[in-house]
Amino acid sequence: MTTRTGAEDERLLREARALVPALYGLSRALRLQGVAEAGLAQLPPSEVEVLRYVQDAPGSSVSVLARDLGLHASNVSTTVRALVARNLIRREPAPNDRRGVRLYPTMDALHGMAHIEDAWARIFAAAMADLSAEQRAALSNAAPALGALAERLRARRAQDRG
Q1: Which of 66, 106, 109, 113 could in theory staple to 73 by disulfide, Cβ–Cβ 3.0 to 4.6 A?
Q2: CA atoms of 49 and 78, how far apart (whole Å)
Q3: Which residues does 71 contact at the CB level (< 8 Å), separation at least 6?
């Protein structure tokens, strides 16, 4: 970790304050759009979030999923039950602990998330068409940095949980 001056910390804070509302707005747009546009049955945002996590980390347990998403295990269990009932998640016994359960996306879930992500891309493309070429280039160039920022936030959260 590098040592920063007070002025550098203030600059970083100003930059973060400018970014946070924009990123929150994008996040909200994604949560509120895409599922219906993909022609799928309406999934509550919590189900989309759990489904995305299980797709990204197949074989996770409910407790790990709850911890990583910052949710109560009981809420995640309820959400998982709903996704199992919709045939979007399947439960399998943990290999080393028959009492434990591992979660995996079903083929329906993989196809459904692909449709949602395609709908999100179409929504973003339509909105990006209204931007200048310079703004579109800035967004495209920012994608790797935003991905790195998301990973760093996940790592800091895991570190804070100990």
Answers
A1: 66
A2: 13
A3: 46, 65
Rounded CA-CA distance 38/31 in Å is: 13
Tokens coding 154: 């996940």
Q: How far apart are CA 18 and CA 46, in angstroms?
A: 27
DSSP 95-127: TTEEEEEEEEE-HHHHHHHHHHHHHHHHHHHHH
Length of the chain: 162
Q: For 73-116, what is each residue's pLDDT tens digit? A: 899 999 999 999 999 999 999 888 778 899 999 999 898 888 88
Closest residue by Cα to residue 27 from 150, 112, 159: 150
Q: Note whether 123 and 37 are within 8 A (CB).
A: yes
Expressed in angstroms, the distance from the first to the final Cα of the chain is 18
pTM: 0.72
Beta bridge partners of 105: 89
